[in-house]
Write a structure and sequence with these properties.
Chains A, B: GO terms for molecular function: sequence-specific DNA binding. Two copies of one chain form a homodimer. Chain A is of the alpha+beta class. The first copy, chain A, is built from five helices and five strands. In chain A, strand 3 and strand 4 form a beta hairpin. The longest helix of chain A has 13 residues. Chains A and B meet through helix 1, strand 1, helix 4, strand 3 and strand 4 of A and helix 1, strand 1, helix 4, strand 3 and strand 4 of B. The structure holds a DNA duplex.
DNA sequence: TTAAGAACAGAAAAATATTCTACAAAATAA
DNA sequence: TTATTTTGTAGAATATTTTTCTGTTCTTAA
């Protein structure tokens, strides 16, 4: 990965719909050269996918909650069982296993508090092996980017 | 937004490179009908952007830290000053203003612990108005999606 | 019932992606 | 050093897709 690849990735992270023509003029390369570089980055798995981002407020998913979870026990079996169940929950967009005071951080997106309550009662708290949960509510989105700055 | 729009959005969230032809066959519509629906969703702002997702491990950004921050004071001026500074930090991909025990949750992506230390010392702790920070390290990624399930 | 607007399909046109060929620079081996 | 391979590139040709255009159907409201 040279400097040109990095510039290319920065541009593609912002907007995957940029045409190779646009990219070629910004990078001072031919269309083919840009095309080949992109294909190489895809083959190497550096580019993993192209996705569409929706405005969560316009699809009734603007109520965002971070839920910190502790498990009761931490045997390998119980952990993977818990994780399998979490992955299947539509409201949970992200789930990270973390070090520290609790075991997992979940990011949950729903319509409103009522829907969150419903989610907690009927889904989250019925998960196996949960010790405790602690919900933190988002009151503002300061930055929410999918683009890495490469250096 | 009808059921067809929702199906369309589910498909596009997964892979924005799907052609209108592919989509049209999955939705039992003509190419033009799909095209017009997508343009409408873009105009309405429901589709906000198309992005490229990179594999963070392959670009040396696989060390992920959640940092919980408390401010000293909470006047409007100090908050917006702090937020402006945070947004400008390349290592901070996400920053949410939250309710509860602390004021902000930051998601920080760097290469390794050494780079994180450097970031803490030279950038994060030099921010104005910070009361305290608490770092939680990601030890596993269970789920990390950008796709909402629509209902 | 009729008029207006929205959604749709198919064809045509325009733009883009992809492949192919060839060349030059850089890296590698003899 | 020279010969050889590899890599990156450019331009042209081709394939595919996007976008526009035209006309039709369907829905809705007057």
């Amino acid at each position: 990965m040279d400097l040109t690849d990095k510039k290319l990735l920065v541009l593609l992270q912002e907007d995957s719909k940029k045409t190779t023509k646009e990219l070629s003029s910004k990078l001072n390369l031919s269309v083919t050269a840009v095309y080949e570089r992109i294909k190489k980055l895809e083959r190497e798995g550096i580019i993993s996918k192209y996705v569409t981002i929706l405005d969560k407020n316009k699809i009734d998913k603007g109520f965002v909650v971070f839920c910190h979870i502790k498990l009761i026990k931490h045997s390998k079996d119980l952990i993977s069982e818990f994780e399998k169940e979490v992955v299947s929950l539509n409201e949970v967009l992200e789930c990270f296993h973390v070090s520290g005071d609790y075991d997992y951080i979940l990011k949950i997106c729903v319509k409103d508090m009522e829907e969150y309550r419903e989610f907690m009662v009927t889904k989250l708290t019925t998960l196996q092996h949960i010790g405790s949960t602690h919900s933190t509510f988002m009151i503002g989105e300061v930055k929410n980017s999918t683009s890495f700055v490469l250096n």
